[in-house]
Amino acid sequence: MHINRIATVFCNPMYINWNDSINLISKLTLKRVWNAAKVWSSYQLSKISGKPVQWGLPVSISFEPTTSCNLRCPECPSGLREFSRPTGMLQQDFFRQTIDDIAPELLYLIFYFQGEPYLNPHFLDMVQYAHSKGIYTATSTNAHYLTDEKARQTVESGLDRLIISIDGTTQDVYESYRVGGKLEKVLAGARNIVQWKKALNSKTPFVFFQFLVVKPNEHQIADIKQLAKEIGVDQVRFKTAQVYDYETDPNQLIPTIDKYSRYRKNSQGQMEIKSGLQNHCWRLWSGNVITWDGLVVPCCFDKDAMHQLGNLKMQSFRQVWQNDNYRQFRKELMTSRKNIDICANCSEGLKVWEK
């Protein structure tokens, strides 16, 4: 069984953080707005025509700082040490070269794919470099390395968004998935960030607890809201879990609370995905993922980089984005998306509830 934590965000206007929204808007330039318009219009044209058309460059990308991780999460290839691809650390020179190529059009940069970003010793230096280019930066962490000093450096780096994964409010529930993790370290790290934001009078990073709702922790939904309030993080976001063998759910992860589940029983009593899988995908037009060693893959579901669309050690990003591999993948997706393994149980179009 595999759980995927990336999903389309559903924003209820009641829960929009205006400081964060204004900060994101402040990153817009005429070139970035024009690029986004080209990407969006080419995506719409592709949907209408049934043929892939790609204009512009990605609005957002994910860059992998490292594949290393300190935890042993049982459903994660990094935690299990089961990658079929090489493991390693993103190098600064390569990162800067790539960012220099696409910074004028790029709006949003996610420092995450697999692994724990803070294990890369140059992680915050790269955040600061992207920040200097006016790019909105975000990362996701298990928060075990947010010491007082590292929290100060994080705030000073200009990081715009910090996602802290916390899937339980008690140690026993938390470690049922976060094997080897210590909840007290997560909470201490969160407090350090909040304190340094106040000390430096900084509105960034926007900090939220990410709570993946599964059956073992669904009884702690009210508790995580209270805990977040006590610590002073900006928000709690509840996310639905993707369970690959949802038909049987042998580990009993699908929650009983319907709105936090991606699945439902059909008239035959079998579990099915709530939303259908159509032959188009906004992610493939608007963004992609770059591994630590320069491989370009379609999205975050391709953890082992099986669908390699290019190699930035051999081609520039702009060349890869319009190469034959990319064109062929977009064509296949628009012809029969359900036959692409990483798409078969995708979360696109499913809501993520925010509180």
Q: Percent of residues in beta strands?
A: 5-15%
Task: Please give the number of β-strands.
Answer: 13
Overall form: globular
Along the chain, the helix and strand elements come as EHHEHHEHEHEHHEHEEEEHEEEHH
What is the oligomeric state here?
A: single chain
N- to C-terminal distance: 28 Å
Residues in helices, as a percent range:
25-40%
Q: Which consecutive residue ranges, at least 5 long each, have pLDDT under 50?
A: 1-14
Query: What is the count of DSSP helices, taking H or I runs of 4+ residues?
Result: 12
Mean pLDDT: 88
Reported for the largest beta sheet, the result is:
9 strands, mixed
What spatial order of strands do you see in the largest sheet?
Answer: 7-6-5-4-3-2-11-12-13
Content-based structural category: alpha/beta
How large, in whole angstroms, is the Cα Rg? Answer: 20 Å
Keywords, please?
355 residues, alpha/beta, nine-stranded mixed sheet, two-stranded antiparallel sheet, 15% strand, globular, disordered N terminus
Describe the 3D structure.
- There is one protein chain.
- With 355 residues, this protein is of the alpha/beta class.
- Helix content is 34%, strand content 15%.
- It is built from 12 helices and 13 strands.
- Strands 7-6-5-4-3-2-11-12-13 form a 9-stranded mixed beta sheet, with helices on both faces.
- Strand 4, helix 6 (148-157) and strand 5 (161-165) form a beta-alpha-beta unit.
- The chain is globular.
- Mean pLDDT is 88; it is low at 1-14.
